[in-house]
Amino acid sequence: MEAIRRSVLPPAAAHLLGSARFASALTLCILGAAFSTHLLRATMGWAGLLAILIALVALATLSLLSRRESIDWYGLPPITILMFLGWVILSVFWSTTTIVSGTRVLYLLLFTALAVYLTLVRDTIQLVRALGDVLRMLLGLSLALEVLSGLLLDLPIAFLDIQGNIAALGPLQGVFGSRNQLGLVALIALITFAVEFVTRSVPRMQAMFSIALATLLILLSGSPVTFGAFVIVGLAALALAGIRRVPAASRMYWQLGLLAAVAVAGGVLWLLRSGILNLLNAGSEFEVRTALWREIQRYSQLNSLQGWGWVGAWQPSEPPYLWLNLATRGTQNSALSAFFDVYFQLGLVGLITFIALLGFAVVRSWLLASEKRSSVYVWPALIVLALAVTSLAESTVLGEYGWMLLIVCAIKASQAMSWRDALRRHEPSSIPEE
């Protein structure tokens, strides 16, 4: 086996690809590409973006090959991920757009492979630091282009979908294509920067400036979806901080009490949803979503069990997505909800597996953040929660950077709380010699 490895990778190449410095640089490139997909498509087209992603996967594969002896593959990946991806792949065979479905499945698998690489070669704190550096750059670039468009040129930057509304204090789009996308990325950045501050991973002034930048762009995005997610994540962070200070002996009772409080609060929010939507000025957006969801439910009855086949982002010119847009008089490229999107594309089977994937990721990461002393474990818990909440009104978690972060956090949480790992710990530590 060693001879095979040496024949595939020359010693010099294996040393370079297996080095920590190369893994660090490749991590920055992967995260930068994942969060810059809209920017790359706008400047280089789909061909340029795909070439970059394929090159990153090839480099990640070579890097893993050179480091495989030091990597623990046991219990990877979580079964919920395998079940969901398996159903996604199978859906190609009954899809109404087979070629499109096949290419979109491969696109999803590219980001899955990159996410697996990140979890295998980088610790959580290393991922936080790398993501912090990437998002500082992209948020800074977004603000600079908004200032250029709205104040200096007073013209929109059409190819980036920047409308130049900064003089009116938003809504801004940055380099992410829409205000909801900018808001979600800024929220992810805020969580990341806060963890950097708490863990003292970067200089204090740099962390404070980064937090201020992310908060400013959340406000200027004018995204009601992000505002709602911001409030929920903020309350969750406070609850998590309190639970982490509770003695371990009574922590489970506090967790159950918190779960009951969340259930009651969810019921109250549902009863007061009209007033909350008016407060967030999200009435028109919610009406668009509810109209689209009604049509999705109607068309899903034709393929309720298996769905119409995976495509990820919609093809507005192809049925059945053409029918949905005609029925709602819109030009949507998603169901504006990850749950409705999965139900429409993958049916009830896909929806159940997706809920299991998301649910296990939330529960495992939350329990880890509650029990582990290091503050870095708070990061995956809050990131997954932000993605889960946003999934109610956006489909970002089903592709590109949203999917990558979900897989990273799910695997990180599973590595520490996997039932397969528990079985391994109960196996005999040594085998008697014959």
TrEMBL record:
Do the record's keywords include Kinase? no
Q: Where are the transmembrane segments?
A: 12-34, 46-66, 73-94, 106-125, 137-160, 180-198, 227-246, 253-272, 342-363, 375-395
Per the UniProt entry, the signal peptide is none
Its keywords, alphabetically, are: Membrane, Transmembrane, Transmembrane helix
What is the official name of this protein in its record? Exopolysaccharide production protein
Origin species: Microterricola pindariensis
